[in-house]
Amino acid sequence: MGFIKDLFGREADEVTLGDVQQLISMRREEDRFLKYKDPGILRNVEELSQWVSAFLNAEGGLIIIGLRETTPKKKEQQKKEQTPQNIRPARVVFAPKEYSSEKVEGLIIANIGSSTKPPLKVYSVHHPKKVTKAIYLVEIPRGDDPPYQASDGKYYRRVGSTKYAMSHYEIAELLGRRKQPSLALTSELTEVKVEDSTYRFCLRLCVANNGGATARYVQFTASFANAEIESIDRGNVLRSDEIRGGMPSIQWDSADRVLHPTGQKTLIADLTLRLLNNDEPCTLDYTLVAEDTDLIISRYSLGAALLEEARERIEQGMAAVLIQEEAEEGEGE
Q: Phi/psi of residue 218, each to 5°?
């Protein structure tokens, strides 16, 4: 995140009371990444959750609980709604001793509505002589699973030094920023043989989820031109030649499982194929899609020259991973 280091020039666990007091002497104004709050906000969880929601739904930032804000003058107070205030810290006010960084963090998380735990962190800056007194630095990232809801049922966003309740279209826009799955197919030749000028090769197909969310209802289809599928050695795939005009084809889905966002490969199939015409490549055309992902349409091309190169690599103990010839993304289904 880095908001604490950017402000104080040191790591969070190295910040001292003197560093915090320097913000007062420097008259450091609030901005879109920095907010000062009196410890009284810990007893007003609704307001606290509004500020945390506002930062999570924007670009993140830092709330310092323990710095009382400057009070606008009467004339300035009358114009408060029309003119943004230049808010500066006035003095240090320590939080009551019944709080701790863990308790403050738990208080915040319990009052933020989200499908995942907000990845924020609370650090304490203790009084050098009275360890029961502390200031809390609440470092908040840009939320990666928005929108985040405050305890009053509304969604807030930080703009300048203020916050506001978001409109419907803004909430809908943030839903598009949620973590999503990201599927990738890998195709590897594990064996290549030539018998009577006929190429036979073993092809391993795997899929991985490199995104930030679980992939559900993954579906994969593949058709092979200029090749015959001699056997399916491993994998739970179905032949679908009849719906592909007789072209050797397979289909696979993850109806009985989900693909977690670990990047770990999941086997689709180990196939043994025979190249029909050495003068033409075998082309593997496939589609790959899941819930909340775009449809991927891509192709591999396996000609005699590539198969020869792969055979040499395999004999030397190296991987023979295929490179996609072309790829495109279509509209999700």
A: -75, 135
Chain CA centroid to CA 296, Å: 20
pLDDT in tens, 61-71: 999 999 998 86
Distance CA 294, CA 290 (A): 8
3-175: which CATH topology?
A: 3.30.950
Q: CA 28 to CA 69: how far, in whole Å? A: 11
Burial class (CB in 10 A: 0-12, 13-18, 19+), 243: exposed
- CA atoms of 143 and 215, how far apart (whole Å): 20
Cα 138 to Cα 135: distance, rounded to the nearest angstrom = 10
* Contact (CB, 8 A) for 87 and 30: yes
pLDDT per residue as tens digits for the range 74-95: 545 545 444 456 899 999 999 9
Q: For domain 183-330, give the CATH number.
A: 2.60.40.10
Give 32: exposed, middle or buried? Use CB within 10 Å, 0-12, 13-18, 19+. Answer: middle
**For the chain, what are the domain ranges?**
3-175, 183-330
Share of the chain above pLDDT 90, in %: 72
Beta carbons of 89 and 36 less than 8 angstroms apart: yes
- Residue type at 245 in one-letter notation: G
Residue 215 carries which DSSP code? B
Q: What percentage of the chain reaches a pLDDT higher than 70?
A: 91
Amino acid, res. 53:
S
- What pTM was computed for the model? 0.57
Beta bridge partners of 157: 164
For the chain, the C-alpha Rg in angstroms (whole number) is 29
Decide: residue 201, CB within 10 A, 0-12 exposed, 13-18 middle, 19+ buried.
buried
Q: What is the 3-state secondary structure (H, E, C) of 120-156?
A: CEEEEEECCCCCCCEEEEEEECCCCCCCCECCCCCEE
Give ∠ CA 293-331-183 in degrees, rounded to 5: 25
> Residue 313 carries which side chain, given as an amino acid letter?
R
Quick: pLDDT tens for 31-54. 999 999 999 999 999 999 999 999
